[in-house]
Amino acid sequence: MKNITFGGRALSFLFSSIGLLPLWILYGLADVVAFLAGRIVGYRRKVIRENILRCFPDMTDKDLKKTERDFYRFLGDYFVETLHLGAMSSKEITKRMRFENIEEINRLLSEGKNITIYLGHYCNWEWVSSLPLHLTGNSKAGQIYHPLENAASDYAFLKIRGRFGAVSIDMEKVLPSLMEWRREGIPSIVGYISDQAPHYHGIHYIADFFGTETPTYTGPERLAKTFKTAVYYLDLQRPRRGYYVGNFVKMSDDASKEPPFSLTQQYYTLLEMSIRRAPQYWLWSHRRWKRTREDFIRYYGEEDALRRLRRP
């Protein structure tokens, strides 16, 4: 354990040291990373191209190559921006990461309402961890995460994500954490990045996403219904390099009153709209469609698979 802690602290120190550099210098490094990843190494180029063409089948070859280039450039930016997050002041991050209609969120929290936030791997989702700087009153801001296999890296990234008060919650411990906050009478706003490819045991719904059947998690919806939370989608935009704006789009005043899976489908519809607006900012390198309905049925058998898909 001591070795893990030492390694994590050393890696955290390295990340923070690099992050201390001003963004204009870090963006020079980002351009180098983008060139190496896109032009030299061809990092996941096949997956990236297949995903883009799956979503935009009519895209011309010229537009496809431009989207790929822009994505690699953004991937480099995301990398250095995340390192910079570990050294940013609250003044700088609140200038660079703004939240529109935050007054509505603060009003609900002041009334004791819990809030569920849907996000995607779109724009710089790491900078959203600065949300607590914009909240008023006694509330908790949480973000669900999957622990990294490398303990040192996990420690270092948790340090970065928690700098401004956001609580990182292991996805296996979400329910106990929410129950504890409710017992203590602390209203919460919790963000779920829900566009990952689920394991077979996590599939309970097949969403329509870019006209493609997309097996998906429904955990965020089920938790929102259990705690009767208000539900929002955080629509992120990047008006220019180094600046982001998040707009809270209301999906429901009370998740428990919504039909089964409607919030999950609404999330994918909203995420698709964001991606269509500026496709270079989504994580195309992720193998989002590596599991299909047919794979799911083969894994469980037709009867059991259908039973699982009917379960709210």
Number of strands: 9
Strand order of the largest sheet: 1-9-8-2-5-3-4
Low-confidence stretches: none
Order of helices and strands: HHHHHEHEEHEHEEEHEEHHH
Tell me the distance between the termini. 40 Å
Which structural class do the helices and strands define? Answer: alpha/beta
pLDDT averaged residue by residue: 93
Shape: globular
Number of helices: 12
Q: What is the CA-based Rg, rounded?
A: 20 Å
| Estimated share of beta-strand residues | 15-25%
What is the helix fraction of residues, given as a range? Answer: 40-55%
Biggest sheet layout? 7 strands, mixed
Question: Mind explaining what this structure looks like?
Answer:
This protein has 312 residues and is an alpha/beta fold. Helices cover 48% and strands 18% of the residues. The protein contains twelve helices and nine strands. It has helices spanning 2-19, 23-41, 45-55, 61-85, 90-96, 102-110, 151-161, 174-183, 219-226, 262-277, 293-300, 302-310, and strands at residues 97-100, 115-119, 140-145, 167-170, 188-193, 205-209, 212-216, 230-240, 243-252. The strands form two sheets. It has a seven-stranded mixed sheet with strand order 1-9-8-2-5-3-4, with helices on both faces. Strands 6-7 form a two-stranded antiparallel ribbon. β3 (140-145), α7 and β4 form a beta-alpha-beta unit. α2 packs across α4. The longest helix is centred in the N-terminal third of the chain and has 25 residues, at 61-85. The termini are far apart. The model has no long low-confidence stretch (mean pLDDT 93).
